[in-house]
Design goal:
The protein is mainly beta. The protein contains 3 helices and 12 strands, in the order H-E-E-E-E-E-H-E-H-E-E-E-E-E-E. It is 13% helix and 39% strand. The protein starts with 20 loop residues before the first helix and ends in a 5-residue tail after the last strand. It binds flavin mononucleotide.
Amino acid sequence: MAAHAVRDETAARAGTGPVTGERMRRVLGAFCTGVVVVTAMDGDEPVGMACQSFSSLSLDPPLVCFCPGVASTTWPRVRSAGRFAVNVLAADQGELCRAMAGRDKFAGVAWTPGPGGSPLLNGALAWIEADIERELPGGDHAIVVGRVRDLAAGRAARPLLFFRGAFGHALAD
Ligand SMILES: Cc1cc2nc3c(=O)[nH]c(=O)nc-3n(C[C@H](O)[C@H](O)[C@H](O)COP(=O)(O)O)c2cc1C
């Protein structure tokens, strides 16, 4: 098919209408990411939320960031903890990810406290512990910047990927 005949949005130079949330979700879903679970301790209760909006931000100083939704009930609890752990999920942790996006998040979940006290999930590819440094506005999300205090790579396994609203783990195949 000639390039000019392609009708999908990737080929369109101008968009195809208003920038709605549905279009944002569908088009931005083409940006494949890993998935992390951001965890913290609220008193003696572990809290967590699945996040794809995680990024390494700066090496010097060592910073990471993620973006919790303003409607998140977990984020205020992480904020009050003042620190968090980022758990990078492996390909076989899709079910754990779904649990961490639901209600009864830590039921049956194996974890150990990190050096800074935040929950480290068993089986993760890597963990990063950080202190909350800044919270910036970002529309219907916040941009949270954390200063890394400790980190380590865990087991050698394939990563859990999120692409077009679904989990995947073999893009090169
Ligand atoms: C793959 C995946 C990625 C997600 N990424 C984010 C994210 O970046 N920011 C966010 O606020 N919620 C994200 N969520 C949704 C939250 O995990 C979930 O809605 C949230 O924990 C539930 O709200 P709560 O904070 O009130 O528990 C994601 C969910 C999934 C399954």
